[in-house]
Structure formats: structure tokens, C-alpha cells
Amino acid sequence: MGAVWGKITAGEIAKALDGDLLQGRPEMRIRGISTDSREIKPGEIFWALKGERFDGHDFVSKALRKGASGLVIRKGFHGIDAVPTNSQGTWAVIAVEDTLTALGRLAAWWRRQHRARVVAITGSVGKTTTKEMTAMILDLSGMTLKNRGNLNNLIGLPLTLLRLDTGHVNAVLEMGMNRPGEIARLTEIADPQVGLVTNVGRAHLEGVGDIEGVARAKTELIERISPEARVVLNGDDSRLTKAASRFQREVVTFGFGEKNDVRGSKIKKLGREGTLFELHYQGRSCPVRLKVPGLQNVSNALGAASVGFCLDEPNENIVQGLERFEGLKGRFMLIRLPGDILLVDDTYNANPSSLKAALESVKDLSPEGQAIIVGLGDMKELGQEAISAHQTAGRMVAETGASYFAAMGEHARLMVDGAIRAGMPRKQTEEVFTHEEMVEAIRRAMKPGAVILLKASREMALERVVDGLKALDR
């Protein structure tokens, strides 16, 4: 059992896809898969996907010139006439009704060929950190596959699953979404033994309408997961537990409330040195020291520990895995600058829920009397709530006690106005228009011992401000 690249054939792939092998020998071996004609390696099959900006079908000839062993294309693709016929079967050409659907179908088939335990994680906030913590726990029991970067959608998750090989014992898969139905489809593809939802927050509202729509979308995981699988939920999130209750599934809950199955207590904030807490499960308890600060990371750790308990991981593996985690670039990563200045790089993404958690954690990192400097960019995909959410963002900055606030983006003025209305002096706020302006504005506000938080949606590329501030001491 176990499909292996380099041994799998074009005929086997065509059969798994219910596709038509238009050209090439069925016994031709395929070394891998690529959806990018620029990066394809000799022997890989090129999967022509149609996106918002590009259509992979426009690049099939380029892929073949770079050594592709074949193509997966949509039926009726007129450009197939331009693909040279080869009597020796050098290229395999497989036609399917829809190449994106076919990619998921192959990934689902590939997953069934391997014995690895599969975990699926979704949620509005913390899913990537929870995925990384979970993978660190499970990796102690055997080689564990996980999504690279943000490969968590209908393209990225199948490509991740297609990296499964016979050496993997576990796979931990993050699932993202921006419209209804995506989590359901990802769950069908991954067929996880454990599914976890971290929380429900105001994210991707543009695609689902409102926060109730987010709850419905996230709980598609529970709706589509196998009846034999375990479900793990944040028991402190009443909106999530209410949305999940309609499925009448037995669940494992985690959080800080007394009724949770996996619980954290005796939380001791160690400032820049992390967090200490007591982990409880089934009458047992043990101390855990996280290297990362923030109450949200304790919650992420409780979720990861819950997965470990569901899969019967030893206590020592769970504790050791959590204590090994050192943070992720762009996700509340702590960077120390000269002058005892702490730069918090939380630039990977942002929504109202994650911003609230970040600001609360920043207060814990700032000793009394030390300056808090905040640089924010726009939060995307908020739909009709965009205006109110950005005004609230400014208010939350003011309530943090920040000594300086710089905002950038289409909604920068709303954020600044929100901070001023909440009592922040106008002279301590600024609307900037470029990354360079934000670097310079923060540089002027920097004082020894200050804590700087940078956060925005991915599209704002605020990591350029991180790089600019790091370069100041060179």
C-alpha cells in the first residue's frame, strides 16, 4: 500500500481521475506534479489550473519544453492541437472535466493509499500556529507532513497531500476558506481522523456575509468529517459550540473554562520569556512552559494538546512538543532590536479578532511605563463591516495605551480617527502612505525599551516595514 512518485503511472492517474488518456503510454511513470510551468521539473506532470489572473492551459507548451512528462488539461481544450503528438509516448495527456476538481480527486485517492494519521485544523484565528504546535507533538512519534506556508486552500491542501509518502506517520493539514463550501470540500479530500476548529471570528466576512456565516463555514468540517473521526472544539467559544451542536457529534473541548475536557489553568505570564501554565486532562495535570507569549498561544497549545490526547500521544510528547515551539515568522514573532526594543512581527494576516488578541498580548510584553508603538495596515475581506471594523481597530489601539500609532492603507484615516475619538492625542497618531514612511515614522517614535507591534492583512506586505526597522541598526 502507498502510492509513490516515480512508480505511479499515467494510466493509474487517469483512472483515479476518471479522465481520458488522450496521448502517451499508460505505463509511463510520473515523477511528480506541478501547477507552475516556471518551476516544473523533468518527469513531472503539469496540471493546468485556471485562476483569476492566469490560465495554466496557456503554458502547456512551456511546461513540455522544460521537461514535463505530461499534462492534465480540461476536456475540449482547443490548444491541444498545438501539443505535439509523439508516437513513442514521451508525453502523457490526460483530459478531465475540471482540472481543479480533478486535483482534489487525485489528492483524496492518494490519501487513501497511505496509512498516515490525518489531522485537519481550521478556524478564524490561530490555525497556523495550532497546526505547527500539533505537528511538533506528532513528529515525536513519527515523520509528520504539514502544509508549507499558506498552502491551505483547494489548490494548496491537495498539493500538500500529494507529498505524502510511505515514510509519513502523520499529516497535519490547515484548512482555509473565504466562501461557503470550501471547508466541506477540503474535508472530503483530506478525510481526517481528527478535525479541530480553533474559534469563530470576524474574518472573510466578504465571502460569507456575517459572523454567523463564518460559524456555518467553519463547522462544515464537523458536517463532512467521518462519523468515526474525533472532533475537537474551542469550548470557550459559545458561537462555535452553538453552531456545532446541530450536528450532535461527541466532541473534545479545550479552553480555560472548568467544563472543558482539556483545560489550562494557573497561567503565569513571563513577559518576553513566554508563558507558564498547567495542562489538565482526565484528572491528570502537568506544567507547560511556552517560549511564546500571549494568552492566544496558550489557547493554541490547548488545541494542539487535545489532538495529541485524541491520538493517544504520550503526555511527555505533548509537553515536549509544545515547549519546542518557538514561534512563526509574521505570526506574533518577537524580534529584539538594539536599545532593548522589542519588535512584534504579526504581519502575516489580520482580522478584528486576531488584532484584539495581538493588542492584548502586547500589553503583557510592555513593562509599566514603557512605550507601545503600533503600526497597522488594512484588514481585508471584511465586506460591509470594513468601516466599523477599522474604526474599532483604532479605538482598541488607544485603549491599549499606545504612545504612538501609524496606519497605512485605504482605511488608514478611519483607524486614526477611531483612535482619536477614543482619547488618543492627535499628535501621537499619523496616517502614512508608504512602507518607507511607516519605517521613518516609527523610527522617530522609538525609545529604549519600547514594544512595537506591526499587523495587517497579507496584501499590505507590512513585512517590508519589519525589514526596514531591522535595517536601522546596520
Low-confidence stretches: none
Can you count the helices? 17
Radius of gyration, Cα only, in angstroms? 24 Å
Average per-residue pLDDT, rounded, comes to 93
Number of domains: 3
Fourth-level CATH superfamily of the largest domain: Mur-like, catalytic domain
CATH domain class name of the largest domain:
Alpha Beta
Which structural class fits the helix and strand makeup? Answer: alpha/beta
What percent of residues adopt helix (DSSP H or I)? 25-40%
Number of strands: 20
Strand order of the largest sheet: 7-8-6-9-10-11-12-13-14
Q: State the shape.
A: globular
Q: From the 3D coordinates, which CATH architecture of the largest domain would you assign?
A: 3-Layer(aba) Sandwich
Layout of secondary structure:
Layout lengths: L9 H8 L2 E4 L8 E3 L9 E4 L12 H6 L4 E5 L17 E5 L2 H14 L4 E6 L4 H12 L5 E3 L9 H6 L8 E5 L7 H9 L3 E4 L7 H4 L2 H8 L1 H5 L5 E5 L3 H8 L5 E5 L6 E8 L5 E7 L2 E7 L4 H16 L4 H10 L8 E5 L3 E6 L5 H14 L6 E6 L8 H15 L3 E5 L3 H10 L7 E4 L2 H11 L5 E5 L7 H8 L4
Parallel strand pairs: 2-3, 3-4, 4-5, 6-8, 6-9, 7-8, 9-10, 10-11, 11-12, 16-20, 17-18, 17-20, 18-19
Antiparallel strand pairs: 1-5, 12-13, 13-14, 15-16
Helix pairs in contact: 3-6, 4-11, 4-12, 8-10, 11-12, 13-14, 14-15, 16-17
